[in-house]
Design goal:
With 376 residues, the protein is an alpha+beta fold. It has three domains: 32-63 and 122-261, no CATH class; 66-119, no CATH class; 296-376, no CATH class. Helix content is 50%, strand content 23%. It is built from 14 helices and eight strands. The protein has helices spanning 7-13, 16-25, 44-61, 84-92, 123-144, 195-209, 213-220, 234-238, 240-254, 273-292, 297-300, 303-323, 329-345, 351-367, and strands spanning 27-40, 66-75, 97-100, 106-108, 110-119, 149-166, 169-186, 261-269. The strands form three sheets. Strands 7-6-1-8 form a four-stranded antiparallel sheet. The chain has a two-stranded antiparallel sheet with strand order 2-5. Strands 3-4 form a two-stranded antiparallel ribbon. A hairpin with a 2-residue loop joins strand 6 (149-166) and strand 7.
Amino acid sequence: MNNELKVLDLYTKTSTNKINSFNNSVRSEFTVSTNVESFETNFEWLELMEETIVYIDNILRNPNRFIINEEEVVNIEKARRVTVESIKHLARNTSMIQKIEKNGDVKPSKILNINKDENYNTYENRLIYTLIKNMQLFISMRKRDLVTKSFTKDTKKSEYHGSSRVGSETVDINVSLASRSNVTSEYGRNNDLSVEQRIDKLELQISDLTRTDVYKMLDKANVARVIPPIKKTNLILKNTNFQYAMKLWDFLQTYIDNGNKTTKSSSTIKENVKVKAMFDDVFLLNYLIVNSLGENKEQLKSEKNREVVENLTNNMITKIVELNSDLPMEELQKIIGDRIAVIRNKKEASLEEIQQKINVKIQSAISRIVTFDFRS
């Protein structure tokens, strides 16, 4: 299939005067408007939670704790354990001594009992407890209006109005062109899991965190949640697990809306010399196409066209005869006749190809000339 633009043949075959007359008379205006709208989903929160969940689990598996000493004075028979603190307390409170044996043994009636208990109600643990609560609430809100596809809509519209004159002929054109593009893309999968599946998996992991002893104890105690600003304790600043947890904390605190990004832009071009010149060129080509429909065989045989053809033919034959004065008439007729047959039978041959073949014949004829006579 020939991919050449046939319309360009009209341009090359049209007289320069006609083209110049058209271009000099062109009066035109154009408008090109573009509108682009894009929507980009954002699942940075999901990726960050997936990354952080393991560090939160490390914190709850090895929680920060402190020891609570509960002191209580009880009857000696109820004492569970006698410690150094119990002896010191008895020495300071001799009224609780019931009897001193002859061997020096002291028999108290009451004694200080100290119960030691581990407590997880620390600032750092309450911070992680609050973070888990925030994660659950955040995911719940994101799932209400979950959108996993991004898209880009691109629309263009052009309007062109032009007029021109070629001799007594008036030419007008009105062109309207519109294009639309709509491209959608799904948010990338991870380990063959869709966004929905990844969220479900994350929720299961968070649910496991709520079953740890630390979380259950804090939740049962209905501890107060931590609110910003966060105290920068040594554990929060230096522990790797807490550093990742704080990165997620800060992200959730500064998260705006749903995180998705919508952008819209539009532009209009009216005054651009290069664009206008291209529109005017298209106007000219459209005119040449329509104008060519009026050409037929009868017009080609008009007196004016015949006169031009005869003049060109006479000039060509004169040159050939002058260059081949010694050749017999029959051979000259054969050369010219052969070329006419070739041209008529090969309509689709390019002008360059025909010219090359004519040149070969002429060169061949010249090489056979014995004498050359300059004629006035």
